[in-house]
Amino acid sequence: MIPESQAAVVARNETWTGSAATEPYEAGWAREAIVFVRALKSAGAAGRAHVELSPDGMNWAPEGTTFPLPDDGNRVTYARVAQFGCWLRIRAELPPGSSVTVVVTIHVKA
Amino acid sequence: MTALSADDLRRAMQHADPRLSRFDPLSRIICFDDFDRGFCGWTQLVGNYEHTLDAMLPGYAQHSQSMLSTLPAWDFGSHGSADGSYALKVAAKAYKGAQNVTIKRLTFRKRGPIRIEFYFTFKPEANELRLSETDVRSIGFLYDLQTGDKDADAWRVMPHLRFLNALDGRHLQKWQFKRKTTPFKNLGTENKTVTHYHLSPEDWEDIPGGEQKLCYNEIPTKVNWHYGCFDFDLATMQATGFRCNDRVFDMSTYEPIRITGMRNLWCMLNFGFFVESDTAKRSFLYLDSVCVSGDF
Q1: What's the domain count of chain A?
Q2: Mean pLDDT of all residues in chain B?
Q3: B23-294 belongs to CATH 3.30.870.10
Q4: Are strands B113-124 and B283-294 parallel, antiparallel or unpaired?
Q5: Distance between CA atoms of B241 and B251, rounded to whole angstroms?
Q6: Cys bridge to B270: A93, B100, B144, B204, which one at CB 3.0-4.6 A?
Q7: Would the CB atoms of B68 and A55 count as touching at under 8 Å?
Q8: In Å, how far is A49's CA from the nearest CA of chain B?
Q9: With an 8 Å Cβ cutoff, are B53 and A12 in contact?
């Protein structure tokens, strides 16, 4: 069997301001992930995304990886993650007055 | 020793196979999806759009990708599926009326009887230390079908069936169907793309005698797996039977949504499963396995 792989769009055309987070994504079968954030449009200064882990999909802790949110239409930023247990999400923090409309895609592989 | 018919032999082989013995498929298996093998072609139902994603109806914009889940619970760990570790998980967001749908898209070879069998369970997110049995509004399934391009009739037919678990806090536990969708809306400027919201909350009707108390268990993290089996005839485009666990339901009043055939969906054979939240709490539908079969 070829190892399982999945591209999951977890946020599509969502506009983020202030603090935001993707829905919990469960992938305990996966050994590695890349989280891509693509901007459809943005305004103001770029924010940052923080990878978060969870024991249960409800309580979250920072994994330690952070990366900039894209600050221009069709720009893409990403982070690589491994050993994330069952649950994965990203939390976004944007400065006051900024916004970004995103497509967030998680690529996971067994 | 008497000679076995081909049908008897087929059934004997299926009954001897632990993977298939718990299903009653028709003569040809169209797909057998055990989610211990992966996603098996089940994906997100994305809404239609043209030129901009802003054109997508809100009912579809909320949808997200299904997941492979071990049903991990905060209080005891992974629950596992009916016969392995993984189930397909469909998660509706945490607001009243939220929905999500997973879909598989095929086409059919013959307009005859088809059967979909599935092992399923459902729960809300266990973020309260209480039973939470009225937090999931419903779980259900649908076909999205269309006649062949040379057929005498030209229909798009969408059988819908849901288990209305709860509504506005009332634990109703009954099976329902719907025969109406919303009016079609043109998208964009090219006269090629339209949309409608067949999972709108209106127009659900009760199946006669369709009340059923499914095993729910005693805390918000324990689940039990249920069996469902829906029979449909592509020739007449009518439902011919529905069973859930020990119950057989009267489908004499059942009608699918029936709309004029569309120019690019001939022989479409799509199946979908959905889940709805009734409170500001995520709702989860889990599918252990799905077997779709037909007589052809």
Answers
A1: 1
A2: 95
A3: no
A4: antiparallel
A5: 6
A6: B144
A7: no
A8: 20
A9: yes
Closest alpha carbon within chain B to A3 = B38
Range among B5-19, B45-59, B194-208, B265-279 rated most confident: B265-279
Q: Is the pLDDT of residue B76 over 60?
A: yes
Band of the pLDDT at B1, cuts 50, 70, 90? low
Chain B CB within 8 Å of residue A84 CB: no
* Residues paired with B62 in a beta bridge: none
pLDDT at B185: 85
What ipTM goes with this model? 0.96
What's the full length of chain B, in residues?
296
Mean pLDDT within B39-62 = 91
Helix (H) or strand (E) holding B184, with range, is: none
User: To probe the interface with B, which of A2, A6, A101 has the most B CB atoms within 10 Å?
Assistant: A6
Chain B nearest-CA residue for A102 = B53
Mean pLDDT in residue range A80-96: 97
Query: Which structure tokens are listed for A86?
Result: 């069952």
Q: What is the pTM assigned to this prediction?
A: 0.96
Return d(Cα A64, Cα A53) in angstroms, integer.
Answer: 10
CATH number (domain holding residue A23): 2.60.120.510
Which member of B37, B69, B125 has the closest CB to residue A58?
A: B125
